[in-house]
């Protein structure tokens, strides 16, 4: 059963839908059909679930503001974090194949999501060709991120994983028009350790070492990248360098 606190509106206002409504391709596609179907804007408090593993798939969700994590729960009750979502990300793509959500998705802070009601749009016969094309692009990005995660967990050291993770968050923040040099870790160190497949103390030691090396300033959850080039030498790879190589 999906646990959300929702506010319904035929045309979600910019105040609720936020920047993601205007900036993202999915948001613009939703605007094109907003007059034909009732859109749902959901507000999530920190720690609140958007979906639970096993929920039937009915909609995707555009994260307008805030952040969230996706995770699975093992037989022993341990959580395995599989993804971190930031504002402007599309949530729930991994449920489209089997029509069931395979992961739990929980807010890391106060967050707002806009529903993408695929099933309802199909039933009403709404033209969704533009939206479907955008979903294909989003799925391609998901495949790319999954490949990057496999490489990260494959044959890299814990230190390389942590540096790569910090740089990845930097790129994701910068791509949204925010600072890629200074940002706040909305996830806990336990979550980071789970995602990277390392121990909690390893994450703390790795961040401390980067701090001592002068490439990062770490103040609680506040991260400031003080020497990006040197931080890149600690990482398993630097996506920015790889992109420049591919262009060259």
Beta-strand content estimate:
15-25%
Low-confidence stretches: 1-14, 241-248
Helix proportion of residues, in percent?
40-55%
Q: What would the CATH topology of the largest domain be? A: Jelly Rolls
Query: What overall geometry do the principal axes of the alpha carbons give?
Result: globular
Instruction: Quickly count the domains.
Output: 2
Rg calc: 19 Å
What is the rounded distance between the termini? 50 Å
Give the biggest beta sheet.
Answer: 5 strands, antiparallel
User: Would you count the extended β strands for me?
Assistant: 12
By oligomeric state, this entry counts as single chain
What is the averaged pLDDT score?
82
CATH superfamily of the largest domain: Jelly Rolls
CATH level-two architecture of the largest domain: Sandwich
Strand order of the largest sheet: 1-2-9-4-7
The helix-strand sequence is EHHEEEEEEEEHHHEHHEEHH
| Structural class computed from helices and strand pairing | alpha+beta
The CATH class of the largest domain: Mainly Beta
Number of helices: 9
